[in-house]
Amino acid sequence: MDNWIKSVWFIRVISLLLAGLLWVTVNVDDNMDSDSLFFNDTSTDTEVIDNVPLEIRFDSEEYVVSGLPQEVSVAVEGPPSAVTPVVRQQNFTVYADLNGLGPGVHEVSLQHSGISNQLAVTLEPKNIEVTIEEKVTEEFSVDVDYLNESSLDENLQLGDGTVDPTNVTITGSSSVVDRVAQVKAIIDVQGADQSIEGQEAPVKVYDNQGNELNVLVEPTSVNVSVPISRRSKEVGVAFAQEGEAPEGVTVDSITSETQQVTVYGPGDLLDGLEQLPEIPIDVTEVTEDQTVEVDLPLPDGVTAVEPETIDVEINIQEPEAEESAAEEATADDESVANEVQPESEEESTDTTDESSSSET
Asked: Which of 36, 154, 229, 347 fits as disulfide partner to 266, beta carbons 3.0 to 4.6 Å?
C-alpha cells in the first residue's frame, strides 16, 4: 500500500481524477443543469410574456415622440432552467433607441437587455414607426367643467366657478399643441348642496371636437371654487281692493314702496313667473289713510319669497276733494244750461213772428 502511494503513476491517476471532477463541477455551475451533462438532456421550453412595457430612449428635453406602442410581447425559448426565472422575475428591458434621430418619421427596431444569451428571444412587434417632433410649451387659461350637473337639486343653481391658478402650461409636439381648443378643470357636483371651496380638480385638454389630447400639463390639477345658491328671481307685486269702503269713504289708491320681491323655486317655474298673484287688501273698515302689513302669497311650486311680508299704504280721497269735484260737476252742468238758453229764446222769437204774420 505504501508503495502505491509513493508510486509516480498512482499520483498521476489521482491528479487526473481530481482534474476531471473539477471540470465537471465548473460546467455544472455554468450551465445550471447538471442533468444535461450526465444525461445529455436537450429539451427546450417556450414562453410568451405579454404586456411588457416599452422603454423609449431619446432626448426628451428637445423632442416629443408619437406612434409608439405602450406594450409589446416577448417570446423566449431555451432550457427550462433558463426560461423559468426570466418569466417569473421579468427583470429585463425592451426599448427603442431613438438617440441621434431628428424630427421626422422613422422606422426603428426594438431591442432588449437583461435576458440570458442561452435563450432565443422574439419581440412582437420587431419594428415600429415613430414620429419625432420638436417640443413646444405654451400657457393656457383654465375653465371649469361640471360632471353630473343634471343631478343637482332643481332648486339650486351654480354660479361662475373660479380656479387657482388660473393658467397652466401645456407641453407637447407642435402639431398637437396647435390643436388645443379647451383646457378644463373637471369638478363633480353630484349631491352638492352648498358652495364648493378650493376643491382639487384634474385638468383635461381637448381639441375642438371634444377629443382629449395627450400632452403634458403643469400643474396637473388646480383648486376650484363654485358658488351654489338657491334659484331665485325678482318679480313684481300687485294689489286688489277687497270689499267696499264705509259710506262716505272713497279709496283713492293702494300702493307699496316695495315694488319687487325675490321668489325661490325650480328654474323652469321661475322662467315663466313675472308677478305674484294680486294681493287682496280689505278696505271694509278703512276710514282714513293707513298702512297695513300683508303676507305675500306663494304661487304653486315656489319654495320661498323674500321678504315674507310688506307694508301697503291705503290712501282715501279727502272730503274737500269730493266737494270740490261736486262743485266742478255743478258748474259744468250750469254752463251747459246757459249755452242751451239762447237757442230756446231764438226759437221763441221765431214762433212769435210766425204767429203775427198769420194774423195779418
From this structure: 154
Give the sign of the dihedral formed by CA 123, CA 126, CA 131, CA 133: positive
Q: Which amino acid is at 43?
A: S
Question: What domain range includes position 193?
Answer: 142-230
Count CB atoms within 10 A of the CB of residue 203: 19
Rounded CA gap, 201 and 220, in Å?
9
In a domain? residue 243: yes
Secondary structure (DSSP) of 281-328: EE-TT--S-EEEEEEPP--TT--EEESSEEEEEEEE--HHHHHHHHHH
* Whether residue 217 is found in the same domain as residue 240: no
Q: Give the tens place of pLDDT for each residue, 77-89.
A: 999 989 999 999 9
Contacts of 252 (CB under 8 A, 6+ apart): 315, 316, 317
Interval 161-207: pLDDT, tens: 999 999 999 999 888 999 999 999 999 888 888 888 999 999 999 99
pLDDT for res 248? 87
Single out the residue of 247, 204, 241 nearest to residue 222, CA to CA. 204
Instruction: Report residue 126 as a C-alpha cell.
Output: 420587431
Q: CA–CA separation, 317 vs 154, rounded Å?
A: 48
pTM of this prediction? 0.52
Residue with the three cell numbers 416599452: 54
> How far is C-alpha 253 from the geometric centre of its chain's CA atoms?
52
Q: Which amino acid is at 348?
A: S
Half-sphere exposure of 33 toward its Cβ, with a 13 Å CA cutoff?
A: 17
CATH code, domain with 277: 2.170.120.40
DSSP 236: E
